[in-house]
Amino acid sequence: MWNAYSASYIKNNKTGNRFIMVISFLAAMMLSLVSGLFYNLWIDQVNQTIAESGTSEVAFTPVVIAYIVVFTIASLALVMMIHHAFAATMTNRIHQLGILQSIGATPRQIKSTLVNEVVVLSLPAIIVGSIIGIGLCWAVMSIIIGSTANLRDYTLTFTYHPIVFIG
């Protein structure tokens, strides 16, 4: 019954669903882009330290601290963007959820239904957004690497660690 309810809601509420999917896509793409850029800039910092001093110990320089602060702020902003998109669509459904509760749906069943809807709507958008974000990161890093090649004594390549993707 709950799967049929969710499927019916997803099928009949295209505007709200598109809104959730677009927000999830944009947030995942931007988060993937920002995290990839900061990871590559951090790798560049490590390579630069190795080239200058011969050691791979990277201290928390102001640049590294700035990377961490900006990345944290960007991550929180994008997560809040997704949260508010879901909150906006749930606010429109309060009447409908109240009816479900009045006919015997438990809070656990309602929460399970909403979580399933969120996963169905946002997971594909998040995956596609992350992949496109990685592609954009590669393009930006290629431009940076190409334009700064004569300023470096070391080779810089694009890297994207799987932990960055999972994060």
Automatic annotation (TrEMBL):
The keyword Acyltransferase belongs to this UniProt entry's keyword annotation: no
Q: Which InterPro entries match?
A: ABC3_permease_C
Entry's transmembrane regions: 20-43, 63-86, 118-145
Recorded superkingdom: Bacteria
Entry keyword set:
Cell membrane, Membrane, Transmembrane, Transmembrane helix
ABC3 transporter permease C-terminal domain location, by residue?
68-149
Keyword check for Transmembrane? yes
Q: Give the way it sits in the membrane.
A: Multi-pass membrane protein
Q: Which organism is it from?
A: Muricoprocola aceti
Annotated protein name in UniProt? FtsX-like permease family protein
Taken from the record, one Pfam family name reads: FtsX
Q: Where in the cell is it found?
A: Cell membrane
